[in-house]
């Protein structure tokens, strides 16, 4: 429970958000003895409680779950934590160093102070901070297409973040739109539960779960792929808009092969673009999207093969993937009523929402401008964003590195401020 105070509280650092990113920064500040507070609207690890479906698992292996001062210590390092296990892991991390979290506090406004530092307005009163770390992630407002409003009222609509399990949905077919990590895994979850699934396939790439005796994540980690700064990627900063490769950690981990789903009875379509007379219309992109996803998965195997050869690693060879299904024709429409569709699940992403941040550190699209989380506004930082520094920035162990880098900047700035104050006080005393 929070109480409103008329007197502002002052801290060297205010961290907005108490997920794994904000907590990682807090750990470093705690070790350095820097006074700070984490302001959390819903509670530690709340996104793992409320923003995932029941059968969710991480797509990265447990050994990659490394935060500052706190590594995965369970019995299955090569396995994949469930939603509840991730929640416990992050909550346990906060408890391990008694992180100074204020739960139930919504930050409504962040603005610069005229004399330096920042004003932080919240539902629990006013805070003053010399420095602020925004650790709220980059996924805030669910995206729905414009034609969603034209769907018949009889059809249940929900965003992927609201999906929990097949049993919660009305009887009938389910139309899933989007094939990023969430869309493909939700489509599989529904399909395994015996639902009639229709899937609009987008342009997301895929990756094999295992290749030549190891998880592909392990190979790519050894190869340093997750550590390459975004500025060195093809396309530079535009890489931050990339969609992650789809794969699953369910049941010990496996590929997500949309062609195999189609072979077994799932209905696949190209990119959905509009609604006319109760029918969803599609671009003829299904074949190209499936081919592209496969080509990316195979190109990753090519990279792994070259790495194995270059390093002289003795591992068995493996046959390459052969497509198990091809579309014979490109479906152009789906009559929802005729197909018995009762539910549509939109899995086409999120928009960032930083309207509460009244500091000029954003580009024309509303994305924060920064270098490794450091903005041009002195003392203001971001952490926990996808591609903050590298592809790995969305994964636990790279979040830890990103947080460590920012913590150095924070601690340095606090130390300089204290040294300045001591010098000033000494001059006044003399």
From TrEMBL:
Entry keyword annotation includes Oxidoreductase = yes
- GO molecular function of the protein, one example? monooxygenase activity
Sorted UniProt keywords = Oxidoreductase
SUPFAM superfamilies recorded: FAD/NAD(P)-binding domain
| KW Oxidoreductase (keyword) present | yes
Q: Which domain of life is it from?
A: Bacteria
InterPro entries xref list: Auxin_biosynth/cation_transpt, CHP04046_FMN-dependent, FAD/NAD-bd_sf
Q: Which NCBIfam families match?
A: MSMEG_0569_nitr
**Name listed for the protein in its UniProt record:** Putative oxidoreductase CzcO-like protein
């Amino acid at each position: 429970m929070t109480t409103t105070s008329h007197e502002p509280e002052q801290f060297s650092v205010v961290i907005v958000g108490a997920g794994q990113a904000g907590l990682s920064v807090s750990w470093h500040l705690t070790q350095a003895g820097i006074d700070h507070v984490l302001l959390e609207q819903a509670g530690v690890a709340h996104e793992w409680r409320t923003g995932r479906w029941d059968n969710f698992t991480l797509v990265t292996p447990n050994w990659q779950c490394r935060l500052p001062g706190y590594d995965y210590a369970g019995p299955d390092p090569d396995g994949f934590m469930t939603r509840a296990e991730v929640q416990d892991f992050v909550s346990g991390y906060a408890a391990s160093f008694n992180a100074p979290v204020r739960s139930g506090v919504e930050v409504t406004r962040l603005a610069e102070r005229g004399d330096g530092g920042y004003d932080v307005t919240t539902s629990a009163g006013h805070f003053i901070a010399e420095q602020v770390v925004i650790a709220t992630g980059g996924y805030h407002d669910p995206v729905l297409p414009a034609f969603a409003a034209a769907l018949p009222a009889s059809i249940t609509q929900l965003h992927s973040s609201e999906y929990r399990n097949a049993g919660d949905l009305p009887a009938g077919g389910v139309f899933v739109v989007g094939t990023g990590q969430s869309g493909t895994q939700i489509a599989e979850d529904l399909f395994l539960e015996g639902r009639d699934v229709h899937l609009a396939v987008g342009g997301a790439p895929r990756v094999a779960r295992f290749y030549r005796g190891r998880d592909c994540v392990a190979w790519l980690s050894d190869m340093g792929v997750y550590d390459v700064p975004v500025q060195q990627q093809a396309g530079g900063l535009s890489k931050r808009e990339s969609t992650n490769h789809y794969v699953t950690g369910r049941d010990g981990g496996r590929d997500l092969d949309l062609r195999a789903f189609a072979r077994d009875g799932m209905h696949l379509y190209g990119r959905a673009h509009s609604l006319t007379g109760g029918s969803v219309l599609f671009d003829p992109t299904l074949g190209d999207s499936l081919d592209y996803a496969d080509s990316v998965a195979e190109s990753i195997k090519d990279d792994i093969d070259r790495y194995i050869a270059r390093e002289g690693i003795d591992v068995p060879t493996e046959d390459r993937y052969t497509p198990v299904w091809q579309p014979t024709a490109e479906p152009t429409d789906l009559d929802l009523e005729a197909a018995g569709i009762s539910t549509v699940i939109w899995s086409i992403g999120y928009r960032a929402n930083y309207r509460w941040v009244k500091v000029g550190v954003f580009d024309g699209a509303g994305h924060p401008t920064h270098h490794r989380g450091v903005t041009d506004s002195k003392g203001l930082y971001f952490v926990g964003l996808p591609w903050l520094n590298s592809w790995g920035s969305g994964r636990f162990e790279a979040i830890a590195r990103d947080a460590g880098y920012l913590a150095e900047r924070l601690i340095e700035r606090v130390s300089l401020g204290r040294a300045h104050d001591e010098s000033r006080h000494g001059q006044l005393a003399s």
